[in-house]
Amino acid sequence: MQETRRIQHSINSGYISIIVEDYELPAFWAHPQMTHTFPGLVVVHDNWGLTQHVRTCVRRLAETGFYVIAPDLYDGKTPQSEQEAEVKAAELGEAGIPRVSAALGVLKNHNHCNGKIGIIGWQMGGELALNLSVYRQDLLAAVIFYARPDDYLSMLAAEEAPLLGFYGDGDPKISREMVQRMGEAVAQSPGGGQVILYSGVGTDFFNDALPTYNADAAADAWERMITFLSKRLEPPQRRGVKPI
């Protein structure tokens, strides 16, 4: 996919806390410096936690014109092995949904958010994003990376939120047939959208910190994602700032 030149905003970023009932949830936050209202995005990390890679994605999205927040669902801990990452994801369990919902609420009610909100998730975070896109009525866009869609296939045909999905045909846990069924359901849904299947790549192809990273697929997915989010959420642009 051909890269589009876009406006690059100067940003602020840092750590904040979100109150979820009696629990203080850490999060990473980035937003344009402009005094303006912007659409909001919640970024939900994968099994590896809130890593440097995720924080870089948050900053890049903010530079494109979004208010972005990434809740740290592992409370500052980052797994050191694939086995540990899977254990942490399993331990989180159903606690992930209210925590991500709280992050969405913070964004939606922020005085610099224009009320248009979307969600992005990878792997475990993608499954949380899928769940919320199905059950929440206020999401205007959902981007899913290599999340198992099995539990949601019957609901995706009625999906109201536009959805963009990314998968690799080398993923051992998600078959090509499953991705195809997901794509058919999304295409028929009221919200519409698309599911992209890349050849010769597997899980974590988007993460440049892992050996499974694929630069070509990651660059294409980024461009498709920004085009999709810009169309659905319409971030404002500004004259006199640098195109990227």
Question: What topology does this entry show?
Answer:
Elements: E1 11-20, E2 23-32, E3 38-44, H1 52-64, E4 67-71, H2 82-92, H3 96-108, E5 113-122, H4 124-135, E6 139-145, H5 153-156, E7 163-168, H6 176-188, E8 193-198, H7 215-233
Parallel strand pairs: 3-4, 3-5, 5-6, 6-7, 7-8
Antiparallel strand pairs: 1-2, 2-4
Helix pairs in contact: 3-4
CATH topology: Rossmann fold
Number of helices: 7
The pLDDT mean sits at 90
CATH H level: which superfamily? Alpha/Beta hydrolase fold, catalytic domain
Uncertain residue ranges: 239-244
Give the radius of gyration.
Answer: 17 Å
DSSP summary, beta strand count: 8
Q: End-to-end span in angstroms?
A: 16 Å
Write down the secondary-structure element order.
Answer: EEEHEHHEHEHEHEH
Helicity range of the residues? Answer: 25-40%
Which class best fits the helix and strand makeup?
Answer: alpha/beta
CATH class division: Alpha Beta
The side-by-side strand order for the widest beta sheet comes to: 1-2-4-3-5-6-7-8
CATH architectural arrangement: 3-Layer(aba) Sandwich
Q: What proportion of the residues form beta strands (DSSP E)?
A: 25-35%
Structural domains: how many: 1
Tertiary shape: globular
Largest sheet: 8 strands, mixed
